[in-house]
Write a structure and sequence with these properties.
Length: 201
């Protein structure tokens, strides 16, 4: 079973729907035992970093997510879920993140002719050897919605990048922890392939 962590964030249902389409048994849950006994865990999310961390705390999910990561089972962060896996975000100064991965979440710099948030389809440059992005075309297009972006501390953990006003680390992998800034559940066939890769880890 794949546990989709429920902390009142947006897009949970669309992740569940995509997994169901792939024939995967998934459940939206905030039950600690259910999350820790699941084969895999997804931390999705749309919204603000600070509000999300407050929700995770109020539902006593911070330690649960850290334990899930430490257990060695595959864990996938999506969009805001990626950002929450890191130490902090410029969006909510002074509010610590989960600190499972190392790097900074920064605001996308203003640039003439570009709107923020970065919203819509963009191509990504995929590094070879990625487990999550296995079998995906090198310049595949995926769907983004975000105003803040990841600058990972460790370059070797970056699985894909994209360009939008600056170089954005669009996907990362470290051991059993995976994360993508884009929305695989809204990225058509490419996104379904990425979710299938995760389900088959």
């Amino acid at each position: 079973m794949i546990a989709i962590i429920d902390y009142d964030a947006g897009n949970l249902k669309s992740v569940e729907k995509a997994l169901n389409y792939l024939g995967q048994n998934s459940r939206i849950t905030r039950d600690k035992d259910e999350i820790l006994s699941a084969e895999k865990v997804i931390l999705p999310g749309v919204g603000s970093f600070g509000d999300a961390m407050e929700k995770l705390k109020s539902y006593h999910l911070v330690d649960t997510i850290k334990k899930a990561a430490e257990s060695g089972k595959p864990l996938l962060g999506i969009c805001l879920g990626l950002q929450l896996l890191f130490d902090s975000s410029a969006e909510s100064v002074g509010i610590p993140g989960l600190g499972i991965l190392k790097g900074k979440i920064l605001r996308i710099p203003d640039k003439e002719g570009l709107k923020i948030p970065h919203m819509g389809w963009n191509s990504m440059d995929i590094k070879s050897g990625s487990k999550l992005l296995k079998g995906i075309e090198k310049q595949a297009y995926v769907y983004f919605v975000h105003s803040y972006y990841l600058k990972a501390k460790n370059e070797e953990e970056v699985a894909a990048t994209t360009e939008y006003s600056t170089l954005i680390h669009a996907a990362v992998e470290k051991d059993n922890v995976f994360a993508c800034q884009f929305h695989p559940e809204k990225s058509g066939e490419v996104g379904l392939k990425i979710l299938r890769n995760f389900a088959e880890l």
